[in-house]
Structure formats: C-alpha cells, structure tokens
C-alpha cells in the first residue's frame, strides 16, 4: 500500500549544513534531463550527496557552483507529512484537484516560458513540462498516460474527499516504486534549486539554511513565486550593505533578513500553510543553525493562521419548526 514516510523535518537544516562537514556533490556530467533549448551563459550549481545518471540530453548543466546544503536532507523534508507527504499513487491536489504523485510531483504541467525579468541576474529559469521531467527520471510517456487515465477514472468515482480518505487509510495501490518516486523528487529539487538561483542574485552567498528555504519555496510554488514581488524585491535589495564594502555589519544584516521574513509572514501562503511556512521562514534567519527551535518559535509567534468559517447545516428539528 502507498505509505507516507515518517517525519524527517525534525532533522533540521543543521544536518544539511556544510559548516560542520562539506557536502558531497553530484558530478555535473551525470545530471540529465531531456529536450532543453536554453542558452545559459553562466554555470549552474553542482548538487547533492548521491548520483543520478539517465541516458538523455542534459537539461541542467551543473559545473563549478556548489550548494551549501545537502540535497537528500531537503528531499526528506519534502517527503514529510507537514510539507508534501509521500504517496506512491496519483492523488488530487487539495486546492486545485490536479494530479500529484510522490512528494507533490505535478503530473500535468506544460512547458512554461518563464523570462528572467531581473537585468542584474544572469541566470535563466527552466520550466520543463511534467512529461520531460518524468522521462528524465527514466519513466516512459506511455506509463505517464496510464497513470493519468487511471487518476481521471478514480477521481470521477471517488471525488476529492474520498480520494483524500483513501490516502489517509493507505488504500491506494502504488503506481510507482519508492525508487522511481525518489528519482522524480530529485529531478524536481534540482530544478527548484536552479530556479532559486534565478530568483536571487546572491544565492551563492546565502547560508545553507537560506538556500534550502528559498529552494523549498520554489519547489512548492513554482512560477507562482513570481507574484511575491515584495519578498523578491526585499531579498534582492543590497542596501543593507555598505556601498564601499562587500560585507554588511551584523545589525543591518539582521534587519534585512527580518524584513525578508516579514514579507512571507504577511502572505496568505503563510496563513494557509502555517506549519510548513514556520519551518521555511525560520530558515531565513541567519542564526537559524545556532538554535533552529528558537528561530521557529519566533516565527510561529507572529503568524496568524487563516481561519475558515464553515456554514453549519441547520438541525433537522429547526428546519421542521421553521417550516
């Protein structure tokens, strides 16, 4: 039966840090995706702590850049039930009903043109289709079509509410192996980190936790992160640094990252997905790794979860009395 993995988010970003010990990286020649027509004049990051190798043309061409956090730790966080969960059969997105699988891999996204609007950021976005990422994980398009057709039949019969119940009670027969779903997740994480660099001019100067936080936002929101204009404007604002120096003083840097956090704390995303948001927003604290619990507690204290009011059905007796 399809299972949700136990919590791994508690391992924290500190286990992913390169501060105590450097991460190992995926060799650039082994990171493959299919059918890219993209001119990217700047190198992109080397990744990970394991290797993937697929017989396709490269979509991500990683060279000399390094990511400071451990890719597998981010994958474990995303598999946690407080974030994306881990379901080995297609299931409906709680909000849009679009088909997802694994750790929230969207099965029907089309290739998207995502232009770089920041003239000071030389890195381009990559937004391939679900089918391209699926093939990059070594899976056939025929199999993807079968999964989508089965999902449509099941959703038509069960509706979204019963679908979610079957997930909770592990009644969905798996359509992917654990290893196949892991490959899909790894490909998606690599894409998210690549695009995180395209969103943030100084991505390579961020701490390991900050890099992981921004990569999580990109993974969860995709191109919708483009709408967080105040957040992106703040994270790319270099005014907290002395114009004559490359480094900022601790006070101005702390205020800068408080402002970055504040932009997310005020968003509907944070109010709607509070548990997930607390973890992600706390990681932008430059002192997060000194005390992750304290950083999360400070964020949690100022987020006000969205309150959804459900209209109660009138009691049968009241209906009769009214009639």
Walk me through the structure.
There is one protein chain. The chain has helices at residues 71-79, 130-136, 141-168, 178-199, 208-221, 229-235, 250-265, 268-272, 274-282, 292-300, 316-322, and strands at residues 44-46, 62-66, 87-92, 99-102, 105-106. With 323 residues, the protein is mainly alpha-helical. The chain folds into two domains: 1-201, no CATH class; 228-241 and 248-323, no CATH class. Strands 3-4-5 form a three-stranded antiparallel β-sheet. A two-stranded parallel ribbon has the order 1-2. A hairpin with a 2-residue loop joins strand 4 and strand 5. Helix 4 packs across helix 5 (208-221), helix 5 (208-221) packs antiparallel against helix 9 (274-282) and helix 6 (229-235) runs antiparallel to helix 7. 37% of the residues are buried.
Number of helices: 11
Distance between the termini: 49 Å
Q: Got a strand count?
A: 5
Instruction: Order the strands across the largest sheet as they lie in space.
Output: 3-4-5
The biggest sheet, with number of strands, parallel, antiparallel or mixed sense and barrel status, is:
3 strands, antiparallel
Number of domain units: 2
- Name the shape in a single word: globular
List the helices and strands and how they pair.
Elements: E1 44-46, E2 62-66, H1 71-79, E3 87-92, E4 99-102, E5 105-106, H2 130-136, H3 141-168, H4 178-199, H5 208-221, H6 229-235, H7 250-265, H8 268-272, H9 274-282, H10 292-300, H11 316-322
Report a brief summary of the structure.
The protein has 323 residues and is mostly helical.
């Amino acid at each position: 039966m399809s299972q949700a993995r136990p919590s791994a988010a508690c391992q924290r970003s500190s286990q992913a840090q390169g501060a105590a010990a450097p991460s190992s990286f995926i060799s650039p020649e082994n990171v493959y995706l299919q059918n890219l027509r993209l001119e990217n004049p700047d190198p992109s990051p080397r990744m990970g702590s394991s290797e993937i190798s697929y017989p396709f043309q490269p979509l991500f061409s990683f060279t000399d850049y390094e990511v400071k956090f451990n890719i597998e730790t981010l994958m474990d966080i995303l598999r946690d039930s407080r974030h994306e969960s881990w379901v080995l059969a297609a299931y409906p997105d709680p909000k849009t009903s679009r088909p997802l699988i694994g750790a929230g891999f969207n099965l029907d996204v089309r290739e998207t043109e995502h232009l770089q609007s920041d003239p000071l950021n030389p890195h381009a976005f990559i937004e391939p289709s679900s089918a391209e990422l699926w093939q990059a994980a070594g899976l056939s398009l025929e199999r993807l079509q079968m999964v989508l057709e089965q999902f449509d039949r099941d959703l038509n019969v069960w509706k979204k509410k019963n679908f979610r119940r079957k997930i909770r009670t592990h009644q969905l027969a798996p359509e992917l192996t654990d290893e196949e779903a892991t490959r899909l997740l790894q490909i998606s994480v690599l894409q998210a980190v690549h695009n995180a660099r395209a969103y943030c001019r100084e991505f390579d100067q961020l701490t390991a936790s900050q890099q992981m936080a921004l990569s999580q936002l990109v993974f969860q929101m995709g191109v919708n992160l483009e709408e967080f204009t105040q957040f992106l404007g703040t994270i790319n604002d270099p005014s907290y640094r002395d114009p004559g120096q490359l480094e900022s003083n601790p006070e101005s840097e702390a205020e800068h990252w408080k402002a970055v956090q504040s932009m997310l704390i005020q968003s509907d995303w944070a109010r709607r997905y509070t548990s997930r948001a607390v973890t992600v927003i706390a990681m932008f604290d430059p002192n997060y790794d000194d005390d992750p619990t304290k950083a999360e507690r400070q964020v949690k204290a100022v987020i006000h979860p969205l309150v959804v009011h459900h209209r109660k059905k009138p009691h049968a007796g009241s209906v009769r009395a009214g009639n």
